[in-house]
Amino acid sequence: MLEDHTTAASSPAPWPAAYPQGYAVVDVETTGLARDDRIVSAAVYRLDARGEVEDHWYTLVNPERDPGPVWIHGLTSEVLQGAPLFADIAEEFAARLRGRVLVAHNAVFDWQMIAREYARARCEAPVRQRLCTIVLAKELGLPLPNHKLESLAAHFGVVQRRAHHALDDARVLAEAFRPSLLAAAAGGLRLPLHECRPLTEWTDRPAPRTGQGAGYGGHRAGGWRPSRRRPACPYPNPGRYEEGGRLKQGMRVAFSGDTSVERELLEDRATEAGLHVATSLSRLTSLLVTNDPDSGTSKVAKARQYGTPIVDEAAFGQLLRDVEPADGRPGQAPDPHGTRTDG
What we know:
Strand 4 (101-104), helix 5 (107-120) and strand 5 (129-132) form a beta-alpha-beta unit. 37% of the residues are buried. The N and C termini lie far apart (47 Å). Helix content is 31%, strand content 16%. The chain is built from 11 helices and 12 strands. The strands form 3 sheets. It has a 6-stranded mixed β-sheet, sandwiched between helices. Strands 10-9-11-12 form a 4-stranded parallel β-sheet, sandwiched between helices. A two-stranded antiparallel sheet has the order 7-8. The protein has helices at residues 2-9, 70-73, 77-81, 86-97, 107-120, 133-140, 149-155, 166-186, 263-272, 298-306, 313-320; strands at residues 22-30, 39-48, 53-60, 101-104, 129-132, 193-195, 203-204, 222-223, 252-256, 276-277, 287-290, 310-311. Helix 6 runs parallel beside helix 8 (166-186) and helix 7 (149-155) packs across helix 8. By secondary structure, it is α/β, with parallel strands linked by helices.
């Protein structure tokens, strides 16, 4: 029996054919967390199909504004003054990303910061899929006390030397991603890949006057969409969504957590379909959309308490394609060109 066990153990399971052929492990440091904050440094570790390091790259980026939380990333205005602009490094950055899955810790943040920088530069990042190592850790059931990068690193015995330095954070993540990828492959796990949709709606506008040291997120030089109040839903709330049924115009829909499609665009599509987008969750909410129903956010907790139906983004995208008209209003749901979603 021992001999049989040894033979089996020495024959690894075949590598999943559907897995990507390469990865770009990315970390960016930024001036803040808002939509119009800027990248101040970026690093990429390129990995092959099985997570082995091929090379790495690092650059500073002049954000053309206050550097934000210097106490976190350590990059002062003086250090960044002579750094290249993002437009100057966009092509080299793209060469590191092209044809690979972008891997990051809280990948939706890194991807959206990168996508916005490319939109400002009037071009697109050549990334079509991303993988979040937080989501992968959850899928693997890793016994982590929390989902910070330092906890993931400690679990795999990776030594972190300079936290919040883009190059070292990318190195740490690359070293922690490889055993995660191997574990996923050994278990036949389907990787949690999300589609990356380029952002093309950046519009420049004059920057408001700000005093010295505007600080963290203090400078606002542009916006992603024209500033406007979303129009009130003209239809009455028909009640809760019923599993297996159709959405109906007037239903109140709330969103929670990471989405593949940028949240604001997804909310706009829901509005265009005749739904009421709610910023909070109450007993009147018809449906909660979340990709992480076990996250424990306040919206998820309230949905559980009130018995509000919960669906993920992919299911919601399908439902948006066939929204039932409100009572007494003949005709079809709005043109689906505004309601298509990823997947």
